[in-house]
Amino acid sequence: MLKPSSNRSLVSNDDRVRYVDGTTCLTVWYDEQKEIIAFEVIFGLVVDEWAFLYHRKGTTRYCKVDNGDNRIGRPQKQIMSGVYNLPISKIEEFSQFDGDVLLEEKNFVLNIMKESGVQ
């Protein structure tokens, strides 16, 4: 007999915070000192999703979010594909982001986006 899958996550709600405003979602991950380890900004939720990803080890990229392939008996996974130049319009769009995000976090994200090289 099949057992229900658990909803447990390896990351607690103290380590990860998600903010949503309209069709944009910001997820921030923290270390033990409550400093930002990484973040992900998803633009165009549900319609035409694009992601800006950052990790403090120096990795940043702007990519397309695809639904991936359906596989029988396995949950569908999202795939981050390609590496594109971040359009300045996405920085302007995120500058209008509210979602109850702390100003310090929002400015951190904006600064990383601006430094990443825009087209």
Distance between the termini: 54 Å
Read across the widest sheet, the strand sequence of neighbours is 1-2-3-4-5-6
Mean pLDDT: 82
Amount of helix = 10-25%
Describe this structure in words.
Helix content is 18%, strand content 34%. It has two helices and six strands, in the order ββββββαα. It is globular and about 35 Å long. Strands 1-2-3-4-5-6 form a six-stranded antiparallel sheet, covered by helices on one side. With 119 residues, it is of the alpha+beta class. It has one domain (16-115). The termini are far apart.
Structure described in brief:
By secondary structure, the protein is an alpha+beta fold.
Please give a handful of descriptors for the protein shown:
6-stranded antiparallel sheet, 2 helices, alpha+beta, 119 residues
Q: What is the strand and helix layout of this fold?
A:
Elements lengths: L15 E6 L2 E7 L5 E8 L6 E6 L3 E8 L12 E6 L3 H8 L7 H13 L4
Antiparallel strand pairs: 1-2, 2-3, 3-4, 4-5, 5-6
Helix pairs in contact: 1-2
